[in-house]
Fold:
Amino acid sequence: MILNTEQTTPACDLADEHARDLKDNTPRESAAETLEALRQAELRYHGIFDNSLHGIYQSTHEGRFLNVNAAFARMLGYDSAEELIANYASIDQNYYADSSVRPHLKRTLEEGGAVRGFECQARRRDGVLIWTRENFYAVRDSVGRLLYYEGSVEDITERKEAELALRDSEERYRRLFADANDAVYTTDLKGNYTSMNRAGEKLTGYALDEILRMNFRQIAAPECIERVREKLKSKLRGEETTTCYETEIITRAGERLNLEVSTQLIHDACGEPFGVQGIARDVTERKRAEEALRQSEERYRELFENANDIVYTHDLLGYFTSLNKTGERTTGYTREEAYHLNIADVVAPEHFSRARQMLSNKRGGEESTRYELEIISKDGRRVPLEISTRIVCKDGEPFGVQGIARDITERKQSESALRHIAFHDALTGLPNRALFTQQLHVAVEGAKRESRTLFAVLFIDLDRFKVINDSLGHPLGDELLVALARRFEGTLRGGDTVARLGGDEFAILLNDLDRPEDALRVADRVLSEIGEPFQLGGHEVFTTASIGIALSTTGYTNEEEVLRDADTVMYRAKAQGAARYEVFDQRMHARVVAQLKLENDLRRAIERKEFRLHYQPIVSIESGRVTGFEALVRWHHPERGLVKPSEFIPTAEETGLIVPLGSWVLEAACRQMRAWHELSPLHEGLKLSVNLSGRQFAQAGLLERITRVLAETRLDPRCLQLEITESVLMDNARAIIALMDELRALGLELAIDDFGTGYSSLSYLQRFPIHTLKIDRSFISERGAQDHDNAEIVRTIILLARNMGKEVIAEGVETEEQFARLRELDCPYAQGYLFSRPQDTAATERMLREGLHSGLFLAPARDLQLA
Ligand code: C2E
Ligand code: MG
Ligand code: MG
Structure:
């Protein structure tokens, strides 16, 4: 409750006057004058009473209203004074909001005092409280008795509420100022602090009493002072009212802080500026974060710009949104040009669908992918790239793609070079066996799926390539292979493949043939291409090849089978005389299977010692005396019985089993012959002929083995003759010559077996340390002998041998005519059924014993003569 007794309102003055009038009514004046004066006063008073803007009432000591004016009635919510008086019982009851007011006021008045300017809350008729300002006094008669109380009431509700609202907002502001998180302060125009809130104290580290003795220059960072002054000046010039800027201060602890400051001038009542109010916020952390962000952005930009990889982004529609320098270099597009491009504009057409797939995967939420594709640069170059992309999100929503791409041109090139090396023959550049096998695999699988598909493999092996290599030298041999490769390529169609499998072996895969015969036609063409002479290093070189053909009609399940069969049948072509082709068929296949079995059996036979030796005598034509025996091996097969050498020697040679077999033959024969020598001195001159295969000749340690066998069996080396077939000798002529010399040095003799079937070079024949030529059976045989040419050949061989100082043995003498003719030709020795078939050891020994005392004569067989 607020009591104000100093101020008086005009309404109060009137009331005072009225009271004074009442008091000043003295008996000094006449009754008439008095009455008149009273009437006048009464009139004046009523005028005032009725027209006053303030409410005026008169009440009894108990509070009953005697009289109220219209303003008072309106104030309390009544239409008229009469209505109020009629309805308002007593002011004591509920006029004052505070029930203690009325008794207090009454006491004051009873004690002779007056109440002025009393502010309180009164209740209106509708219960609403209003603020009033009231004056009271008691009206008494001349002897001091109370007549009534009179009060004047002013409705000050509006002013009061405004006052309260102001006070309220002041309080709020004060609290805001005190509790603000931001520093709030004021300075005078010189910059001396005049106030500072708690946040300011905390921020600066200075206590309020310290601050109030300080100027802003003591806190602001030196380089910021001028700026702050400028800001103030501009405000004083009226250029701006509120200025916001960033500045730095140095706290009491010496720490630098970044502040964001907002200041404005404060003015006095007359509108003159007298100071500055500021609000400052510590933005050091934000500044630091901003700086860190800026630095990381700069670093990123630097990385982005200077990366060796292409870095780019594009939106979800595929339009580029960024591209770094490497990207510009690689694509040939400037950044600005790139912004108008879609990825579809740069990706190579055949990779386009993949690129689109990647993009749609990305849109579908796929996170990161790595893939390879080619782009086309601005100048039309194809550039292979390895790309890794990831989706870029903003507020959790994908809005673009970021990609890092690497130019892998070099890698691709070296990969393809490596692939080429891995799958091609270095010499000819043709596909090698690995690549050929791969392609053959595809063909086999295709034929398995679609039985009408027909393919063929031509397995080509040069005949006598070794001779070319040996005689012309390896470099020319290589040249020949390269030239052949080019010719093969020239004969083929697009879908076919020619490969070099190794050495002098080539293979051709013919795909999509119409008929099997087509393969034969190609083989013919290849053969005639090979047959054309090659000009190599000034030489005209001729060569031939044997071709084995495997056809898919055989029904292959894998590529190895095809190659195996083509290889097998190629050997048959060679066996048939070379420079030709042979086709593999099922019968052939059966033969191959039998061959395999033979190999296995042979191996076992050596372990189980299933071999025996037969001996065929060699006879002097002139004397009919047996001069020696040729040892011929026989195989006692547990199931097949006696197997002839022609059935197993070739296999033994191919498999290398001939080496142990040959060793056994040599040793067994030598031991046997030594035993026969010991049988009788008459036998001591008997010679032993042992066949040596080409494979044995190529075997290291042959010389040592023979030396050892001779030593062990104690056979006179002069009694041993080694037979080597003509073809083996000529194919390996150069390599063999030295070995032959060494063998001769041991004291034994060398013979050329089957002479006339190969292509002996006369010069070699001259140089070889050969003792004997054995004329092949084919020139002697019944049919052969009738042939005039053959007879001439035999004559020539005998002459030749004699001229070169060599002995001659005619093989396969079966008839007396043959024998007679050979005798005519002065052929020194003969061998054949006419004298004896090859016989086992026991039979041979029997024959020897029978002729023991007289020497051994076998010519002719029908009257075996013992001298
Ligand atoms: P070859 O060295 O030329 O042996 C002579 C072959 O002619 C023998 O065949 C022999 O039985 C046969 N023969 C002899 N006189 C006549 C005849 O009047 N008429 C006919 N039609 N044939 C006659 P065989 O024993 O079947 O041997 C065949 C070939 O096997 C031999 O030919 C030889 O090259 C090879 N051979 C035999 N034994 C061995 C061996 O121990 N080592 C090696 N490396 N090869 C052997
Ligand atoms: Mg022989
Ligand atoms: Mg022979």
User: Anything to note?
Assistant: The two ends are 180 Å apart (CA to CA). The longest strand covers residues 382-394. Residues 630, 691, 723, 753 surround magnesium ion (ligand 2) (CB under 6 Å). The chain has 34 helices and 33 strands.
